[in-house]
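Intended use. Records like the one below are meant for learning the mapping from a protein sequence to its folded structure. Do not use them to infer anything beyond what is encoded.
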Amino acid sequence: MSGESLLGTQGHGIDAEVLSRYAQEIKSARDSGAEVAVVIGGGNIFRGVKGATQGMDRVQGDYMGMMATMINSMALQDALERLDVHTRLMSAIRMEQVAEPYIRRRAIRHLEKGRVVIFGSGTGNPYFTTDTAASLRAIEIEADVILKGTRVDGIFDSDPEVNPEAEKFDSITGDEILRRRLSVMDLTAFTLCRDNQTPIVIFNMDVPGNLEKVILQKKDIGSTVEWD
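Structure written out for the chain above:
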C-alpha cells in the first residue's frame, strides 16, 4: 500500500478518513477468506531518497523512512483493531515495545490463525524500497500474489495522471514491462518477483471494494503482470 495515499486531501500526515477506509478494505478482504499480509510505505511522512537529494546522508535518510513506515503501520494496526480485526505488527528493526521482531515461521502461523500481519520498517536495510520489502516478504511467506494498491487503475503505457489518453493493460508480461521501461516497481523488487514467478496485480486502492474484488479475481480490476 502507498503511504502517500494516506495523505488524502491533507498536505502532510495521515488522513483519518482514508486510514479508516483502507482498514475496512483489508477487513473485507480478510473476511472473504484470504490470508492478508500488508506492507505500507512511508512517503506521506518521509522518503530517504528525497532526503538524500537535499544533502542528507542516504543511509540516515533511509532509516528515517523505515521509521515512517512504522508510524503508518501502527496507525493501520489501530484502525484494524477498532474493526475487531486481530493483527500482528512485525518489524525488521527491533522495537519490542510496539512490534514483534520479524520471524518468518511466526508470520506464517499468524496468517494461518486468520490474523492480518503488517510488515513494518521495510527490509531493515538502507537502499531498499518498500516495494522490495513487499516482494521479499511475499516470497518468504509463499504468498499466492502481490497486490500493489496505487492511485491509478493499473499499468498504462504512460502516466495516466498526466496523459488522459494513456492505454491500460489488463495483463502484460514482465519482459514487455522491461522492454517498454514501464514504471511498475523498482528493479530489485521486480527481479525478485520474476525470479520466483510471483504474480503481481496493480490496482486502484482508492476505489471502495477494489481490494476484495481483486482477491476474488473479478475481471476488469487492475492489471496483472504475468511471467513467461
